[in-house]
Amino acid sequence: MIVARTITDLKEHLYALSEGGRRSIGFVPTMGYLHEGHASLMREAKAKNVIAVLSVFVNPTQFGPNEDLDRYPRDEERDLKLADECGIDVVFLPTVQQMYPKPSKTSIIVSGLTDRLCGASRPRHFDGVGLIVGKLFHLIKPDRVYFGMKDAQQVAVIQQMVDDLNFDTVIVPCPTVREPDGLALSSRNVYLSAEHRAQAVILSQSLEQARGWIQEETMTAGSLLSRVKERIGSAPDAVIDYVELLRYPSLEPLDEQELTHKLESPALLAMAVKFGTTRLIDNSLYHPSGGV
Ligand code: PAF
Q1: Mean pLDDT value across residues 92-112
Q2: For residue 275, how far is its CA from the centre of ligand 1 (angstroms)?
């Protein structure tokens, strides 16, 4: 496995390995502190492409002023070991100086999709994601890019960006990987105290219950959201940032009566909940057929 820390190194190795772009490249962009969710993306990238590339970069432009940029967990040695085990060929591990040698005056703003859900409480977050992902796509020129559906809004935003800007790559959404009790894997789970870790299972439990509620004949979007919020509120320290039901991937609101008439398009039940200073997100996608 090759570790490239500079853009020059990355380009040289990729050019040689891909035989000038003739062999397919699968790419997994991450901020490191890798877990089994990332591992599933890396294995998929290697299984479906000749070359698998991983990036590990804690991107400052997607963090707000009072967010966890400085304390974001890092463990390079463990990340490299896991990447190697998953068959990654090239790891790109740039410094902030490499990616942003001077402040960027160019933005990638995906409007509409980014002013709701996480975008409402994290203004400019998705501008930073768009910028770094756009830069990485240009440098790596991947045929396929693998993203976890835990960040369903991010997947929708990046797909829109790829369509709008004609990036020559396919976005591959992959299922959320969970702990045995249902908690979605996240690098930020490490922040949770034992007490909050136990309570955090309420996110996946409420999504699971909603799967049944959504099929009730008289269910409306409003009453579904009330029930889900009530269920989350049963965890003593849970503070809800948002719980919303939106069309996916457009992230437009559903008509209030739509659930009673059966869904017309896939719907995303998405939530962000804080336990102490740790903000967790999770979601579930419901299809008109009733499938997951
Ligand atoms: O999902 C993440 O880890 C980040 O938002 C990403 C896509 C690597 C961009 O920094």
Answers
A1: 97
A2: 22
